[in-house]
Specification:
- This protein is α/β, with parallel strands linked by helices and 242 residues long.
- It has one domain: 4-Layer Sandwich (Purple Acid Phosphatase, chain A, domain 2).
- The chain has 8 helices and 12 strands.
- Strand 11 and strand 12 form a beta hairpin.
- Bound molecules: zinc ion.
Length: 242
């Protein structure tokens, strides 16, 4: 059994198509999207349609909630707020209805999935440090929890209930007796200095987790954003992955 897990598409159709193509080539059995399908990018509707068609399990993120009017736009910076208001004007009733039916965290196939964090998933906490992760290991019982939200991939390993370490690698073997909190990074707006789209492969039989990157035509997305009148800051950051 192979899982393909991805998050934070943010209306970036070119990046999403590249990731879906890779998941096809990897012959994954389950595709999981951890939310933030919309916001920032120029193709919110098309991305929702594609994720809906290809993913076996889909969560909602804070940008999806904001686009639906479920989260106050004052929580977002001016660029994100501008893009969310534009996104709201683009969504069809069908897309709104699909996004409205999504959870923000879920236990599925013996694994934990959340957009932001397993503790208080509707508070949209960021898990940056090992201390943040340590508190969150108490909020799920499964051996692995996959999250998105920060747009920066990171692996936290619970070696014992009092010892959580942050592992800087792209691939590791899952060990019995340890638990894992894994941020899969972002498809449509990476912020770890690598502009390529991020996704993760969990191969259950091989017992390995691997973070992967795939290039996409950033210039095409940037051109669409410019045509839609989206903020220059959001357009430029795609090229540097920050
Ligand atoms: Zn996001």
């Amino acid at each position: 059994m192979k899982f393909g897990v991805f998050s934070d598409v943010h209306g970036n159709l070119e990046a999403l198509l590249s990731v879906l193509k890779c998941l096809e080539a990897e012959r994954v059995d389950r595709r999981v999207c951890l939310g933030d399908l919309v916001g920032y990018g120029p193709d919110p509707g098309a991305c929702v349609d594609l994720v809906r068609e290809h993913a076996d399990m889909v969560l909602a993120g804070n940008h999806d909630h904001a686009a639906l009017g479920l989260t106050d736009l004052s929580h977002f910076n001016p660029y994100a707020r501008f893009a969310l208001l534009w996104t709201q004007s683009q969504l069809t009733a069908e897309v709104v209805s699909f996004l409205s039916g999504l959870h923000v965290a879920n236990s599925w196939e013996g694994l934990c999935f959340a957009h932001s964090s397993p503790c208080e998933p509707l508070m949209w906490h960021y898990m940056i440090s090992s201390e943040d992760a340590q508190a969150n290991f108490r909020c799920f019982a499964e051996p692995i929890c996959f999250v998105g939200h920060s747009h920066s991939p990171v692996f936290f390993v619970e070696e014992s209930p009092v010892r959580v370490v942050c592992v800087q690698t792209t691939r590791f073997a899952i060990e019995k007796g340890k638990r894992y909190l894994i941020n899969v990074g972002s498809v449509g707006q990476p912020r770890d200095g690598d502009p390529r789209a991020a996704y993760l492969i969990y191969d259950v039989s091989a017992g390995t987790v691997e973070l992967k990157r795939v290039p996409y035509d950033i210039a095409v997305t940037q051109e669409k954003m410019a045509r839609a009148g989206l903020p220059r800051f959001l357009i430029d950051r795609l090229a540097i992955g920050y």
